[in-house]
Amino acid sequence: MALSLGGPSAYLEAPSRTLPMFDALRAIFSKPEPTTTGMEPKLAVAVLLVHLAAIDGTVTAAEREALRGALIDYYHLGEDEVDRLVAEATRRDQESVDFYRFTSALRGLEENDKLNIIRMMWQVVFVDNKNHELEDNMVWRIAELIGVSARDRTVLRAQMTRTA
Predict the structure, then answer these.
(1) DSSP string, the chain
(2) What is the C-alpha to C-alpha distance for residues 68 and 85, in angstroms, rounded to an integer?
(3) Distance (Å, rounded) from C-alpha 38 to C-alpha 102?
(4) Structural domains of the chain ordered from first start
(5) Is-contact 142 121, C-beta < 8 A?
(6) pTM
(7) Over its length of 164 residues, how does the chain's per-residue pLDDT go in tens digits?
């Protein structure tokens, strides 16, 4: 398509004619920014729980069972479903370099769902009646990233400490 050289007003007078480059740029910048990574929240939660269980360097049988139990209870999964979910979560955790993909999938959830995620995390932390500093730090970071207040996180920690 040839651009008319009739001066600046000639280009402004023909608003229906645009250059392909400008059309391409307009298309790029007019696309809505994605709000999530497309990851299913259930998988994102499973990845975070898998990482949390292993963050202190060892995954005990009790931590494995707490992780599985939390997923079964919250998502109403069967044994086979939770096995597949944990296997996929483990694979995704090993491939990841940060929590962004996972926490992005959780930011848009309802407040109650976010609180339940932090509750599940504390369940895994306190299953061995210990709170390793790396576990505590991870729960704090995830809570911040998904929008759970420090107060709510602390209240949930206190509740889980009493039940452990």
Answers:
(1) -PPP-S-HHHHHT-TT---HHHHHHHHHHHSPPPSS-S--HHHHHHHHHHHHHHTTS---HHHHHHHHHHHHHHHT--HHHHHHHHHHHHHHHHH-SSSHHHHHTTTTS-HHHHHHHHHHHHHHHHTTT---HHHHHHHHHHHHHHT--HHHHHHHHHHHHHH-
(2) 9
(3) 10
(4) 41-163 (1.10.3680.10)
(5) yes
(6) 0.76
(7) 454 445 544 444 445 555 676 666 565 555 434 434 578 999 999 999 999 999 989 899 999 999 999 999 999 999 999 999 999 999 999 999 999 999 999 999 999 999 999 999 999 999 988 888 999 999 999 999 999 999 999 999 999 887 76
